[in-house]
Amino acid sequence: MDYRKIKLDAVVFFLCFFISSQTYAQVKPVGPATTIKISHQWPGGTIDKGDFRDRLVRLFAQKVGEKTGGALKFEIYPASALFKAVPQYDAMLKGALDMSVYPLDYAAGKIPQFSITLMPAIVKDHRQAMRWKDAPIGKEIEKLCEENGMKIITWAWCGGGMAGKAKPLIKPEDMRGVKIRAAGKMFETMLHAAGAGISSMPSGDIYFALQTGVLDACMTSSSSFESYRIYEQVKYYTSPRVTTTWYMFEPLAMSMVTWKKLSPEQQKIVVEVGRELEKFTMEEAIKDDTEVTDLFKSKGVVVHDMTLDELKVWAEAAKNTAWKDYGEKVKGGKELLQKALDVK
Question: What sections of 81-135 are H helices per DSSP?
């Protein structure tokens, strides 16, 4: 037995423990000690590897924990371990859940205005999507969230593509007769008009639905295409790495019940860290679009990059279906739609 190695390992362990302890010791605990539960639906990983939405949560927890001197501690529940995907909103509303990376459109059944955050062909790339934050449309979304029980902490958008088992899905006419998971009422409205059959489900259920024939095709985020290994069930993929019809707002959000319990100093730190991580979310989402495309190619899936001209065709289809319905049927929808279109 190499006692010198054991001794060295012990020294390294206690040195790391001491440094970590000193880091917290140097920051006086900010506000009362509180444990915050964060839930999301995607597979868990580490702070360095895995779905970027899970990494976002882990980075946030680490940075806030450090800056509050350990006063705010975090428990992270990935893969719907604490709450299923859609009910996370109700849990935050009641204060049963503190935080979630939550696609706002999932709550559109209760707050129809949220459908603007998953509107077909209204965003052309990630940078344009992130410009919503400082534009009137972003201020309206933040106001709607706070009035309905959530505070946006980190803005995050995901690009998404389309994948099919039997044929490429590139133009609206390709949807005729296809059973597809579209994600979001506005996409369902547009695709139904194009002749598709619609099945609604969280992204975590897509793999089994494709495997069993419930679905012929799906739309979801690049990150979910990889995390759920959708390449094992499809033959064709329309990639979002140039542009796409599908951008979904999936912010890190906090229950207003929890937010109001934090001290002013803790609130300030939470907001600062949330803002700092927005560069990370955009860079990782852009990276995912390319990495997932390369992954699908490597698995033998036939890949097509959507072009800006093809996006214009989809925008015309959306204008006469989803955009029209939203503007006519949702309270304030016409104004929200115009504010979204104003972001260039």
Answer: 88-94, 126-130
